[in-house]
Amino acid sequence: MLPLTDPKWKELKGGYKTLYDASVPLSRLERGEDVWKDLWQELHHQGSVGDASYAAVPHLVRIGATLPRRDWHLYGLLSAIEVERHCKSNPDLPSWLRESYKDAWRQLLPLALDDLRVANERYTVRSILGAIALAKGDLILGALISLSDDSELREALERDSAWSELYREEN
Q: Residue 71: which domain range?
């Protein structure tokens, strides 16, 4: 894991493909500040992520584990970074980060399972389920759950007549 005090953070690029020092908002998050808007905006932009996004993942999981409450922001951002990491237009995971990145996903699974037991808010539940699928190595299911909104899921279900009938009966 790249220490938050390492000067290398200033050389990493975020979702805009420009330099973004994620150590600053990560340090603020660690102090309990709400920096999710900044992290979402800079680490993931319209399907683009960068090496700063990847380097932030181990810290997001580490800090997330200490938060009194975890919601959709943590699981959604981690999932977005992981899904977009596989996009050809995004950079490969740097070799110097590979082990801590994969370890972060292994550590995320028990957190997500614990949070799923008590989560009631629909976006948090969906984000957790997407993150669980990704942590278990199912990129397609994780992407479907994490990146689809209600209208896209309804449309997919309505293409199958059996699901379509079920859907109409319940609503």
A: 7-170
What is the pTM for the complete model shown? Answer: 0.89
Structural domain total, the chain: 1
Rounded-to-5 percentages of helix, strand, coil across the chain = 65, 0, 30
Cα 60 to Cα 171: distance, rounded to the nearest angstrom: 38
Q: How confident is the model at residue 171 (pLDDT cuts 50, 70, 90)?
A: very low
Instruction: Show contacts of 33-39: CB within 8 Å, 24+ apart.
Output: 36/73, 36/77, 39/73, 39/77
- Residue 128 Cα distances to 25, 100, 113, 114, 143, angstroms: 22, 21, 8, 10, 12
In a domain, 104, yes or no: yes
* H or E stretch covering 54: helix 51-66
Among 131, 146, 139, CA closest to 61: 131
DSSP annotation of 70 reads: -
Give the pLDDT band of residue 165 (cuts 50, 70, 90).
low
Contact between 90 and 82 under an 8 Å Cβ cutoff? The reply is no
